[in-house]
């Protein structure tokens, strides 16, 4: 394969290419960045600090509305205990993720993140918020995205990840998450984040009712954003992580897609996103099946020990980490632990 593929070529590949052909092309792109038969991983925990949310996405089984029974906000003590547990099992990455809770302003998060940084230093890295939460908090604080990014950076944050993106088309957002953000806002916020010197990532969730064209639009917008970052010498997207929708207990419901469809999508993403270094496979939603995606161009994965959001919708978490790591080894991969990177300018 010479050069990058167009959206039309990607559509043809998806419709016509055999699994073997997709694997071969994806491995070609993977080899430009990574050693063959080698993968990296992290042990991490998603800390869901609050389940109170006003966004009301119809694919979410996690949230409760303000004043509804069952709402919670984790105390600082709870957060520290969860991080201590993570360190005990050998992990060092925390991803904070929660609902759009109107009672928690941006300052609450700045204080929390500063406290985590002060207590753990560089023993733990954390993904502070997803872009979805970031946009909500900046709006509530009447700050521009640039101003909010600087506030978080000054509180010790290094990463605001691309989570909460699901499918980045305006139509998908209107169908399923009309109170969340527009696609235009999403990329404006992500630009402000990288311009502030923070690191970020791209994500995608498949398996709702999205069309092939919507999947391709999401990939095209992601690649365009990365092209812009590279042209302007910005950090850009560190990685692209795709996972699958879990339908249990959600208003939208539906059925899960097959592992094979997921692997093929990982291959297509690896081929299309020729300017993103890491393509990550989701153990959280695919369990042991996630590792076959390494044959389809993925090079990196998390071993998560908790994520209430996906667990509420049917995800199951395997805590036998050595047992999980045996699976990629059996497939012929060496696996190596990877520490979260820090932006050079922000290294303490
Ligand atoms: S997916 Fe996130 S933003 Fe949407 S309702 Fe659930 S917690 Fe709220």
What's the short story on this structure?
The chain has 348 residues and is of the alpha/beta class.
Walkthrough of the structure:
By secondary structure, the protein is of the alpha/beta class. It has one domain: Alpha-Beta Barrel (TIM Barrel), CATH 3.20.20.70. 42% of the residues lie in helices and 15% in strands. The protein has 13 helices and 9 strands. It has helices at 7-16, 19-33, 76-88, 106-120, 131-140, 145-154, 170-176, 183-195, 212-231, 259-272, 283-286, 308-312, 321-330; strands at residues 38-47, 93-96, 125-130, 159-161, 200-206, 237-244, 278-281, 300-304, 334-337. Strands 1, 2, 3, 4, 5, 6, 7, 8 and 9 form a 9-stranded parallel β-sheet that branches. Helix 1 (7-16) packs antiparallel against helix 10 and helix 5 (131-140) crosses helix 8. The longest helix is centred in the middle third of the chain and has 20 residues, at 212-231. It is globular, with a radius of gyration of 19 Å. The chain starts with 6 loop residues before the first helix and ends in an 11-residue tail after the last strand. The structure holds iron/sulfur cluster. Iron/sulfur cluster (SF4) is lined by residues 53, 55-57, 60, 62-63, 99-100, 132, 180. Iron/sulfur cluster binds next to loops.
């Amino acid at each position: 394969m010479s050069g990058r593929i167009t959206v039309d070529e990607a559509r043809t590949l998806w419709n016509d290419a055999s699994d073997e052909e997709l694997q071969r092309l994806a491995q070609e792109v993977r080899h430009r960045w990574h050693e063959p038969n080698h993968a990296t991983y992290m042990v991490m925990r998603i800390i869901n600090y609050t389940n109170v949310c006003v966004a009301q996405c119809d694919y979410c089984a996690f949230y409760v509305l303000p004043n509804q029974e069952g709402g919670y906000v984790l105390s600082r003590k709870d957060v520290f205990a969860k991080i201590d547990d993570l360190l005990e099992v050998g992990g060092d990455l925390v991803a904070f993720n929660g609902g759009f809770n109107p009672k928690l302003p941006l300052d609450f998060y700045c204080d929390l993140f500063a406290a985590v940084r002060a207590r753990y230093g560089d023993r733990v890295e954390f993904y502070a918020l997803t872009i979805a939460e970031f946009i909500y908090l900046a709006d509530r604080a009447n700050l521009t995205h640039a101003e909010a990014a600087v506030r978080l950076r000054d509180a010790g944050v290094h990463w605001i990840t691309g989570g909460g993106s699901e499918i980045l088309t305006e139509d998908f957002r209107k169908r399923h998450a009309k109170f969340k953000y527009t696609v235009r806002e999403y990329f404006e916020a992500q630009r402000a984040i990288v311009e502030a010197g923070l690191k970020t990532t791209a994500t995608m969730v498949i398996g709702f009712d999205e069309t092939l064209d919507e999947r391709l639009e999401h990939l095209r917008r992601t690649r365009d954003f990365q092209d812009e970052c590279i042209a302007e010498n910005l950090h850009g997207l560190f990685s692209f992580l795709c996972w699958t929708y879990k339908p249990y207990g959600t208003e939208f419901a539906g059925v899960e897609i097959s592992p094979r469809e997921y692997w093929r999508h990982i291959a297509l993403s690896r081929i299309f996103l020729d300017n993103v270094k890491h393509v990550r496979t989701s153990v959280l939603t695919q369990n042991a099946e996630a590792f076959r995606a390494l044959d389809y161009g993925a090079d990196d994965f998390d071993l998560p020990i908790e994520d209430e959001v996906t667990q509420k919708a049917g995800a199951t978490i395997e805590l036998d980490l050595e047992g999980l790591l045996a699976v990629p080894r059996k497939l012929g991969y060496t696996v190596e632990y990877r520490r979260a990177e820090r932006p050079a300018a922000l290294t303490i």
